[in-house]
Each structure stands twice: as structure tokens, then as C-alpha cells.
Design brief:
Helices cover about 40% and strands about 15% of the residues. The chain is α/β, with parallel strands linked by helices. The chain has a single domain, classed as NAD(P)-binding Rossmann-like Domain (Rossmann fold). The chain has a seven-stranded parallel sheet, with helices on both faces. It has a two-stranded parallel ribbon with strand order 6-11. Strand 4, helix 3 and strand 5 form a beta-alpha-beta unit.
Length: about 350
């Protein structure tokens, strides 16, 4: 990004949980932002909630993020300097793993890359991948090991699309092969732009995106609300990051020249479980002890591995990661306010 002009950034998935935080940080940094959205009603809600930035924020509708390679052709026109690609399909009840999960994720990345390749102004694309593209569920070592940006999920394409494969494993495959599509494109096509990929685990924290009611919560927020509202204790995956820290990582990855063509795992050093969330809610809220689900044995961490967040913190200027307690409390406050308003 040029230091001499106001960067103009396209954010896909701008009306989503992570995307709205990225949009706000970019606006605060003085960037112009174009959000790509399927739903223009949510786009207008985003704009109406940010009157201070009326001259900096615009939206374009991309009805099908996973359609043809021309899906984003118009979205990148007009002097876009950088792209943050957050949009990705998520289906927990696919009828066909390949058609409903894997191919849409790959095609979404391809669409962005091909559109950027036709627009000389684009300098960098930051792509939100996932710890799902990193994890090896069969990895066993004699001592605790650490996942880094050098690690890849060994799951094959064939396994990912197999009808017998669970939706969770199909999703992991979709994130792996979508990210690989990006790296293969850069390595073979040698475009005029570079990329940075971020591989976060579970993402928690407060919401900045349009949410009509509590039934529309994103996956991780819904899991915390299940705990807070006494519905149950979900299963977790040990590693997490606050959405505000992840948004900062996206913005810094976009703006820092030295991050060129790097792949980062990014996570807080603290581990989490949903029984921890139950304890936090019981301690922090007057109503907590009576409402959260009573559980017996606390959930256990996966003690066999770590997930590196130090390299990302160092390179991206994250001074310290927010705690899981902070993420839980800040979200639950919001959710309770929504409940009290009857939404």
C-alpha cells in the first residue's frame, strides 16, 4: 500500500462477524472501504450505523461469491489497492460435500484472484484461511508439538468430498484446498500482487455486524449463547482468538510491506473450553450461577499440541492477545442486552 495515498480496500464478507470488525479498523486507519455483500439490506445497515464514515464506505453487491471467475470483476474496479477476502461458504448439512462445501470455497478464492489479476491497482490480498487448513488430527509425537504456518492438513481431496465424510471434515478440506488455490495461483501465475494468509482457530468476542435477533448469531457466538442461556455445553477445539485481535491482524497484514507472501497461524496463548465459559459467566454476571448449565467434569484441553501465535503477533504488531474471559464477557453483555430488548 502506498503511504502517499488513501488506500482503497475491498472487503468480502464485510457484513459478517469478522468482516465488520475489519471494516471498522480500516475506516479508523483512514482507508476507504468497499464492502462486498450478498445482502444489500445488511450493507445499508452497516452504512447507517457508521454515519461518520459516509464518505469512506461504500458497498457493491456480489450475489454469488462462488460463481464464475467474473463474480468480483466489477467490485475491484475504481482503484482498489488491496483486498481482504473473508467470505467463505459454511454448510453443516451439505447434500454433496464437493458441490456444497469444497468447490464453493475454492471458486470463491479463484474469483477474487482472477478479478484482482485484471486490475493493476491491486497490490495485496489478505485471505482468511483457518486452523482447519493446518491441523492434522492423526499427528502423534512423543512430546508436545507446535502447529505453525508451515504445517498443512494432510487430508486429501478425495477424502474431503467423500459422501461418508462428516461436514466438519469436509469443511476442513474446503479451507485447505481454497488456500492452496491461492498459493498455487501466486506461484504459477506470478501476478502483480502478493498475498498473505491467516489461519485462525475459533473466533470469539463482541459483534459489530448487523444481527436481527439471537437466532441469527454466527457459529461461535451461538455456542457461547448456548452456555449463557442454559441450553447446553458444546464441544470446543482448545485454541481461540478474540475477533478484535484477528481484525487487527488482517489490517496489519494488508498494510505492512514486509508481510509479503507469508502464511500465519494466529491464536491467543490461552486455551479454552466451554466449561471455562460457563465458569466465567457464573462469576461475571449476577444471574450467571442460576442460569448457566450445571456440568459435572470440566472439559479438558488437548495437551498434545500448541498453536503458534507469536510469529503473527511479532510481525503484525499485536502487543498482547485479549483473554478468553474478555471475549466471553464482552459478547455476553451484548447478547443479554439483545434479549432484554426482545430480539
Amino acid at each position: 500500500m502506498s503511504a502517499n495515498k488513501q488506500p482503497y480496500v475491498l472487503v468480502t464478507g464485510a457484513t459478517g462477524f469478522i468482516g465488520a470488525h475489519v471494516v471498522d479498523l480500516l475506516l479508523e486507519r483512514g482507508c476507504k472501504v468497499r464492502g462486498a455483500a450478498r445482502n444489500m439490506q445488511k450493507a445499508r445497515q452497516m452504512q447507517d450505523a457508521r454515519p461518520k464514515y459516509a464518505d469512506q464506505l461504500d458497498f457493491v453487491q456480489v450475489a454469488d461469491f462462488t460463481g464464475s471467475s467474473s463474480s468480483f470483476a466489477d467490485a475491484v474496479k475504481g482503484g482498489i489497492d488491496g483486498i481482504v477476502h473473508l467470505a467463505s461458504p459454511l454448510s453443516f448439512k451439505p447434500r454433496d460435500n464437493e458441490k456444497d462445501v469444497v468447490l464453493p470455497a475454492i471458486q470463491g478464492v479463484k474469483s477474487v484472484l482472477h478479478a484482482a489479476a485484471g486490475e493493476p491497482s491491486v497490490k495485496r490480498i489478505v485471505i482468511t484461511s483457518s486452523f482447519a487448513a493446518v491441523i492434522d488430527i492423526d499427528r502423534k509425537e512423543s512430546t508436545r508439538f507446535t502447529y505453525t504456518g508451515k504445517d498443512w492438513n494432510p487430508q486429501s481431496y478425495e477424502e474431503s468430498i467423500d459422501p461418508k465424510t462428516s461436514p466438519v471434515l469436509a469443511y476442513r478440506g474446503s479451507k485447505k484446498f481454497a488456500e492452496l488455490e491461492a498459493w498455487n495461483f501466486v506461484n504459477t501465475q506470478k501476478p502483480h500482487f502478493d498475498i498473505v494468509t491467516l489461519c485462525p482457530p475459533m473466533v470469539f468476542g463482541p459483534m459489530r455486524h448487523p444481527v436481527a435477533n439471537l437466532s441469527e448469531l454466527n457459529e461461535t457466538s451461538d455456542a457461547l449463547w448456548q452456555v449463557a442461556s442454559g441450553q447446553g455445553i458444546p464441544e470446543g477445539i482448545t485454541f481461540c482468538i478474540d475477533v478484535r485481535d484477528l481484525a487487527l491482524a488482517h489490517v496489519e497484514a494488508l498494510l505492512r510491506p514486509e508481510c509479503r507472501n507469508k502464511r500465519y497461524t494466529i491464536a491467543a496463548p490461552e486455551r479454552y473450553t466451554y466449561t471455562m465459559a460457563a465458569d466465567i459467566i457464573a462469576e461475571e454476571f449476577d444471574w450467571g450461577k442460576e442460569r448457566v448449565v450445571k456440568y459435572g467434569k470440566p472439559q479438558e484441553f488437548d495437551e498434545t499440541c500448541n498453536l503458534d501465535g507469536e510469529e503473527a503477533a511479532r510481525d503484525l504488531g499485536i502487543k498482547s492477545y485479549r483473554t478468553f474471559r474478555t471475549s466471553v464477557v464482552d459478547f455476553v453483555k451484548q447478547a443479554v442486552e439483545m434479549e432484554e430488548r426482545g430480539i
